[in-house]
Write a structure and sequence with these properties.
Blueprint (H helix, E strand, L loop, with lengths): L19 H21 L29 H12 L21 H13 L10 H17 L13 E5 L2 H20 L7 E6 L5 H9 L6 E4 L11 H13 L3 E8 L11 H10 L3 E5 L24 E4 L1 H4 L7 E5 L2 H8 L9 H4 L19 H35 L4 E3 L7 E6 L9 H15 L5 E5 L2 E7 L7 H19 L3
Parallel strand pairs: 2-3, 2-4, 4-5, 5-6
Antiparallel strand pairs: 1-7, 6-7, 8-9, 9-11, 10-11
Helix pairs in contact: 3-12, 4-12, 5-6, 5-10, 12-14, 13-14
Bound molecules: pyridoxal-5'-phosphate (PLP).
The site of pyridoxal-5'-phosphate has 15 residues, from helix 5.
Length: about 500
């Protein structure tokens, strides 16, 4: 910035948008600011306590004509933005599923922002494409995925922004593969299957892909199967649809459902899909990370039946958002659905078919250099530390489960599988509130206290509290404190204190 400050933090016009020395100075200050944020993170209320619209009165209603100083912007971040931030990296964050950050992930993001390339085709930055191919092979090997998912054959991996995008591109590939077989005019007849525990991303993908909403089967999964999709239920539904003249094309199984970490029986569902010429997609957005540990790898046994497999290193593998890794056995299916080749993108390497052009494996054209951060995470921690990261969280979740067992007023709702504990406060025999009301009260009370953040779900009509250990800074003392906060608020609500 060449402008000089002239009072009120306002600077004179005259600037270079990128100035290496200014970047150095402000970059160091920003890193200091973020490091301080992490040091102080425990002091903030975990879930933001602001009311809707809070920022309207704090920020001018139009952009400044004249440049403002970096210092005045940092001040606004401290006083106006941070109060409206929910601290996903707080060690007292136990909500939804985690969204991990780490030093390596952060530095990788920084480097990606620094290069700021747009790697849609190989030629636009060969390193971006080639590193992604290699790092996705690395991670596939860590997960012990079948060889067909590696780039050495017809398959390979790609980084999508989210599991929702991964599901959508898999569904588009499945849809088009089926329509090429049966004729383009049969879109109305295509049927897609998941369970009522499958993430809502499946319904969204069906809407976008033009699947008739009546043909999106969310089959009931019950307590009897720990909320996993029963192959018998799926088989019956598929047979009924075939008998009715419909065309089953896509079956989505989940490893670690969002509500309760249910694991669908992959091998049986995969065989069923194959027997009916359907695409088999596995959504392991959250729990896929745990499968890097030999003792949890069996949860993806049956992945050899899949056409596509997805997990989110940005959830639980220390890779800053966004990084959702998708592997396919035959990339030509994605490419046939998503490829376009306008004149202005033509180049020698692509035409000679020597390279991967990731624009043909995803929805947008533009794409960031996201493999840098995954590469840095794998290199700076090594698989051994990443496995320990997962084990630490699972052990802390076990510890929380044991704490719950010490207080008969609470109950575990479904058996814990990974680092999510589903539990509830039992209503008092002659209490005023039913179980749902009581647990909603408890949830709101602890979240309003700012001392921790957790969220809920509904299973078989029951309101259930979800406690997920997954923030990288969480230690046993945070879990113990969270339990104490829950007990204290339960005392108040039940009137036992
Ligand atoms: N699938 C599962 C099992 C999830 O738990 C989630 C989110 O928590 C998603 C998909 C959607 O993830 P994304 O935000 O990456 O689309």
């Amino acid at each position: 910035m060449e402008g000089k400050e002239c009072g009120n933090g306002v600077q004179k016009v005259g600037m270079r948008a990128m100035d290496a020395e200014e970047l150095r100075e402000h970059g160091h200050r920003m890193v200091d600011f973020i490091s301080d944020y992490y040091k102080e993170i425990e002091s903030y209320p975990v879930r933001s306590q602001v009311q809707p619209g809070y920022l309207r009165n704090l920020i001018p209603d139009s952009a400044p004509d004249m440049p403002e100083s970096f210092e005045s912007i940092l001040e606004d971040i401290r006083h106006k933005i941070i109060p409206g931030v929910t601290h996903w990296q707080s060690p007292k964050y136990f909500a939804y599923y985690p969204s991990n950050s780490s030093t390596a992930g952060f530095l990788g993001e920084m480097l990606s922002a620094g290069f700021n390339i747009v790697g849609f085709s190989w030629v636009t930055s060969p390193a971006a494409t080639e590193l992604e191919v290699i790092v996705l092979d690395w991670l596939a090997k860590v997960l012990k995925l079948p060889e067909q998912f590696l780039s050495t054959g017809k398959g390979g991996g790609v980084i999508q922004g989210t599991a929702s995008e991964a599901m959508l591109v898999a569904l588009l590939a499945a849809r088009d593969k089926a329509l090429r077989r049966v004729g383009q005019n049969l879109l109305e007849n295509l049927v897609v299957y998941g369970s009522d525990q499958t993430h809502s991303a499946l319904i969204k993908a069906c809407k976008i892909a033009g699947i008739n909403p009546m043909n999106c089967r969310l089959l009931q999964a019950t307590f009897m199967t720990n909320y996993a999709l029963s192959p018998e239920v799926a088989s019956e539904s598929i047979s009924n649809d075939i008998a009715a003249g419909l065309l089953p094309i896509f079956l989505c199984a989940t490893v670690g459902t969002t509500s309760s970490t249910a694991v669908d029986p992959l091998a049986a569902l995969g065989r069923l899909a194959k027997a009916n010429d359907m695409w088999f997609h596995i959504d392991a957005a959250y729990a896929g990370s745990a499968c890097i540990c030999p003792e949890y790898r069996h949860y993806i046994d049956g992945v050899e039946e899949a056409d596509s497999f997805n997990m989110n290193p940005h959830k639980w593998l220390l890779t800053n958002f966004d990084c959702s890794t998708l592997w396919v056995k035959d990339s030509s299916n994605l490419i046939q659905s998503l490829s376009t080749n306008p004149e202005f993108l033509r180049n020698k390497a692509s035409e000679e078919d020597l390279v991967v052009d990731y624009k043909d494996w995803q929805i947008p054209l533009g794409r960031r250099f996201r493999s840098l951060k995954l590469w840095m995470v794998l290199r700076m921690y090594g698989v051994a530390n990443l496995q320990n990261h997962i084990r630490t969280h699972i052990n802390l979740a076990k510890h929380f489960e044991e704490l719950i067992a010490t207080d008969t007023r609470f109950e575990i709702i479904v058996p814990r599988v990974f680092a999510l504990v589903c539990f509830a406060l039992k209503p008092m025999p002659n209490g005023q509130d039913d179980a749902s009301k009581l647990n909603l009260k408890l949830l709101e009370a602890v979240n309003n206290s700012g001392a921790m953040f957790l969220t809920h779900t509904v299973l078989s009509g029951r309101f259930v509290l979800r406690f997920v250990v997954g923030a990288p800074l969480t230690e046993e003392r945070h879990v113990n404190t969270a339990w104490k906060v829950l007990q204290d608020h339960a005392n108040l609500i039940l009137g036992t204190v």
